[in-house]
Design brief:
The protein has 188 residues and is of the alpha/beta class. It has a single domain, classed as 3-Layer(aba) Sandwich (Collagenase (Catalytic Domain)). It has six helices and five strands; from the N terminus they run αβαββββαααα. A five-stranded mixed beta sheet has the order 2-1-3-5-4.
Amino acid sequence: MLKLTIALVFALTASAQTEVAVHLHNTAGVPAGEVKEAMRIAGRLFEPVGVTLRWKTCEAGCEAEAGMPTYVLGLAGAAVEMPLPGALGFSMLATGKGNRGAVSLPRVSTFAEANSVPVAAVLAYSIAHELGHMITRSKAHSNGVMKAKWDRENALRMGQSRLDFAGDDVAAMKAALVADVKGVSRAE
């Protein structure tokens, strides 16, 4: 009976949706329609993780959301230097609570154009990739959304909404979020 109870509790916990706040700082001036579409696509990517993304577009200094992990992402223009050649974004895991990152609009646009994929799709996948790093507090890369460097095949799959998080990445994010929800929550 105890094993059945433990299994039931685990199953309910594993299937429960977790809300996380994502604050977007659009300093690059990404058009509102593209931001909205990117948020829709990124939200879909996190469904298998059991995560509902609560979006907030704001200027610097947004208040952290009470009772949920909060992540801050800048949609950056050309003035923000990317740490690695070819990187579309970065996460600052060693800064503060490790909940900050940025995505480069010029690099996202160049990658999208070179691969004939909508900018909103590449922006969504770049946001999801950086959120994956921040949620797990890891710089690790794998396949799918968390691949270190996307190629033409990945871009085509983005355009068709067929590039997903790998199973190990889903498990790592679920485990990290369970810890956050139990009181180790990161806020601004």
